[in-house]
Amino acid sequence: MAGLGIGAFIVVLILVIVIHEAAHFGVARLFDIKVTEFFVGFGPKIWSKKRGETEVGIKGIPAGGYVKIAGMNPYEVVAPEDLPRTFGAKPIWQRSLVIFAGPATHFVLAFLFFALWLGLVGQPTQTKPLLGQVPTTLDGAPGPAFEAGLRPGDEVVAIAGIDRPTTDQLIAATQAHVGEPVELTVLRNGREVIVTVVPIMSEVDGVKTARIGVILEPGREREGIVGAVTGGVGLVWDNLTGTVRGVARMFGPQGLGRLVDLVFTDEKRVAGDPASVLGVSKVAGNIASEGHFGDMLLLFGLVNIFVGFLNLLPLPPFDGGHLAVLAIEKVRGRPVDMRRVAPISAAVAAFFILFTLAVMYVDLVKPPV
């Protein structure tokens, strides 16, 4: 299952990249801006095909993707007949939309992933505990829950007259009825099923306790269409504000110092430390191996929020850097010489490449749990 989770994460990540670049491409074509290349990946070319005036294809390093828009590279030689269709020849508002279209897709995708998670999987809740496993035996004898007909995936909605019990209430009711039949109501495939189970005393880590022979998981509260939509919007906002704080901390003196400690010392990794694609794919594998495949929708949403915000940082070569240049051009009333911006882009790219390599190293030697 872990491999399936990692594979699903990689496939979704590639699709997200394609959607991001397709948004740049689509809006550019909408405004009749020439696009000469549309590639997924970097490095050596694996496959490509000419579609109209655009070469589309796949390259060997699946670490992103790009569209090549005529006139965006200050060192590019553009044919005279193409000058009216270059990026710089278009109004600032059109160029801004071309740039913003890419990052915007991440927030739309995050909303969709969050809404699907809320509607199909549901948020963990303290009520309605879920039966994760129902072993056939307990201490070598037939398990009371198994004998009563309980199944993995059943949601406990009532026990001994207690509606929507919490996990603690379920355990307490079990302990209060040792050797006595107790009525248990579960939700199975949308239908309530009432069973009678008799708790028995069982030894767990050398301690006697009352059990019915199940392994519990947190219950899930699924939303309807309206709740999923409004909840999805709320999760986008909540996680965006959290991402803003997290990115500020990650790239601040404390965060960079923490990364140095993780790379060069025996400092142990903790929750909240940065993770690269390698680390996040490991988390995806863990989620799948624990049987919570649906929770990968939440993970995909979180990743899109982070990528979308990172793309909007006002630093070249990020999309946000291009938007910042356009804002400066609007204020100044004249174009910015992109050849002067190129060294800044190179410096920022070098920093983020070094940062990413460091985090990938940490993911390899101190993988997230």
Descriptive account of the structure:
- The chain is α+β, with helices and mostly antiparallel strands.
- The protein is built from ten helices and twelve strands.
- The chain has helices at residues 2-30, 92-121, 144-148, 167-176, 225-250, 253-264, 277-289, 296-311, 319-332, 338-365, and strands spanning 35-51, 54-69, 123-133, 137-138, 141-142, 155-159, 162-163, 182-188, 191-197, 200-204, 207-211, 215-221.
- The strands form five sheets. The chain has a four-stranded antiparallel sheet. The protein has a two-stranded antiparallel sheet with strand order 1-2. It has a two-stranded antiparallel sheet with strand order 3-12.
- A hairpin with a 2-residue loop joins β1 and β2.
- α2 (92-121) crosses α5, α2 (92-121) packs antiparallel against α8 and α2 packs antiparallel against α9.
- The longest helix has 30 residues, at 92-121.
- 28% of the residues are buried.
- The model has no long low-confidence stretch (mean pLDDT 92).
